[in-house]
Amino acid sequence: MGTVEQCFEERFSFSPGGRLLALTTEGSVRLWDVAAGRENTPIRTPDVEEISFSVDGALLATASQHSIGLWRVETAVGLFGYATAGEVMADLRIDQDAGRIRYLSGASESQGSSVHTLDVRSALSDAGEEAETAMARFSPDGTLLASARWVPEDGSVRWLLRDGRTGAPLYMLPREPCAKQCDPLLAFSPDGRYLVRGARPSPDDLGTRPRLELWNVEQQKATTTLDPPGGAPAIDSAAVGPGGQWVVATDTRGPAEYWDLRTGRPDAVPVTGVSGTPVPRPDGRMLVTSRGHVVDLPSGVQSFKALGPGETTALAFTADGTVLAAADASGRVVLWDGSLTRRLGTLVPPLGTRYITALAFSPDGRILADAAVGGEVQLWDLHTNRPLGLPLPTNGDPIHALSFAPDGTTLYASGQHIPFQRFDIAPPTAAARACARAGGGLTAEQWRSFLPGIPYRKTCP
After folding, report:
1. pLDDT of residue 332 exceeding 50
2. What is the DSSP-derived secondary structure letter of residue 152?
3. Known Pfam families for this protein (predicted)?
4. Exposed/middle/buried for 36, CB within 10 Å: 0-12, 13-18, 19+?
């Protein structure tokens, strides 16, 4: 079960009462129900050095040199994640009643002499969902959140529309039959008035034909059903233009399709060679895909642009369409002008490789938020192209979509198990959080010690 090294370094832990056993490995924390004699679902998180159960054994805290996590043991679902700056952490403790994680921390060469406290009350209050959400998208203005998941019990794909500012469910869209594993597809039009949705059947599911449906969000009804001509084997991704005027569907195993919904003509614009996830510029006059295909609309003139050094994993335009962000599997984000003629800069992750899953610009275009597959959310100052502090504390749940509030002071996220999260990123809130973590600002004596010759001023209220 364990190795001598693991025992020597105490990289295992029993829950209070001894019913559960946790053991760290290189890429996960393995869990056993000792009483039942069976292994439970492992917690997928790498390089864990410290673990600790809650008093009731329902929660497990983990720590590595770069992060602290909180997990629900029964489902192995992450509830909270907090990025650290290469500290050495020890003596993790979960105070479930107070909603806190406490730990000792110090520099890399020390054993940890400073007590730190993390507030995890909001993470514990998030109910979470055992069923995984396969896909989620915010409308461009952030007022709506659409999500989809495949339900094997009844062989269907289900779509749900939520309030993008509160997370409250608004209504369910009609189910789409899909007997075997299906990957949902969905995308909002740039004006948020329409939603294109569909289901991609598994390759061996010959009984389900791929199709797309255009949904009028305000009227809560389908306006058009689109069947790929010739019985195309699959639809990988789709995009819809402003006002629902056109729909593009791409497929790695066949030609892309374009429907002009004003005239009803398929292939009104030739897009045969286009592949990858398509994203329209907000004015609807350009389409960019994750594979670097650029299509001018409505002329259909195509070009190719290497958007970044690696595989593009996420794309986003600013609200006015003047800047495009392209993220890749290494965590780098390349910024382009809206016509893709000029490279504006590159955002380089400070903590190594991060597979980016979602991007969002603030309404004024000055801040970019990105989310990685491990649930980390990082804010970037686009004036300096530098990160705004450490990643935000999250639940570690893989994130599908991000959106800013109109005033830019709140960030919203939708993940695989936690369908809706809210982050207060207003500067006063960040300052208050920093002061609380530091135990207050510098005293006059500390100021003289660290900043000699500079007049003292109060740094925290």
Report:
1. yes
2. T
3. WD40 (PF00400)
4. exposed
Q: How far apart are the C-alpha atoms of 322 and 170, rounded to whole Å?
A: 33
Strand 100-106 and strand 114-119: the pairing is antiparallel
Measuring CA to CA, how many Å separate 190 from each of 243, 246, 317, 349? Answer: 8, 12, 10, 29
Q: For tokens 């290469």, name the residue.
A: 86
CA 2 to chain centre: 34
CB distance 435 to 461 below 8 Å: yes
Tell how strand 237-240 and strand 246-250 pair up: antiparallel
Confidence of residue 4 (pLDDT cuts 50, 70, 90): very low
In degrees, rounded to 5, the angle at the alpha carbon of residue 14 between the alpha carbons of residues 8 and 15 is 155
- Could you tell me the two tokens for 301? 């003139």
**Looking at domain 307-425, which of 2.40.50.140, 3.40.50.300, 3.40.50.850, 2.130.10.10 is its CATH number?**
2.130.10.10
| Contact call for residues 360 and 404 (beta carbons, < 8 A) | yes
> What is the pTM for the complete model shown?
0.78
pLDDT in tens, 184-224: 889 999 999 999 998 887 766 655 667 789 999 999 999 99
Distance CA 380, CA 348 (A): 10
CA distance 156 to 34: 37
